[in-house]
Amino acid sequence: QVQLVESGGGLVQPGGSLRLSCTTSGIIFRFNVAAWYRQAPGKERELVGSINSDGGTNYADSVKGRFTLSRDNAKNTVYLQMNNLKPDETAVYYCTVVVLTSRYWGQGTQVTVSS
Fold first, then answer.
1. What is the spatial distance between Cα 29 and Cα 99, in angstroms, rounded to a whole number?
2. Strand, helix or coil at 93?
3. Per-residue confidence band for 54, with pLDDT thresholds at 50, 70 and 90
4. What single DSSP character describes residue 68?
5. Contact of 52 with 33, CB cutoff 8 Å
6. CA 71 → CA 45, 49, 62, 77, distances in Å?
7. Does the structure show a pLDDT above 80 at 109?
8. Which residues does residue 114 pair with via DSSP β-bridges, in sequence order?
9. Nearest residue to 62 via CA among 91, 32, 42, 41
10. Residues 6+ apart with CB under 8 A from 92
11. Cβ-based neighbours of 46, under 8 Å, separated by 6 or more
12. In this model, does residue 30 exceed pLDDT 80?
């Protein structure tokens, strides 16, 4: 059973920071590419960034310089550090991994950026 569980979301003021976590089970995590997506109200789900098995990262242009993905293979966990958050980044944030030909998703964690 592959499971992904996100945590760390919440309410933050514009310009604030949050660190999201995604803990996985049922996979050999160090072999997998992991990614964070987000879906804002009324909008399509979009890729935030990804991290490969070696720790290499790729980011959407909109978050470059502000967001950082990292992973701790010993803890089977991928992180998303989000700095200088903007109100339009209010969304449900999801983590995902690809295992062979299958993609697995977490349940999402709500991030609300508001004064």
1. 9
2. strand
3. confident
4. E
5. yes
6. 22, 13, 21, 6
7. yes
8. none
9. 91
10. 9, 38, 39, 108, 109, 110, 111
11. 37, 38, 39, 60
12. no
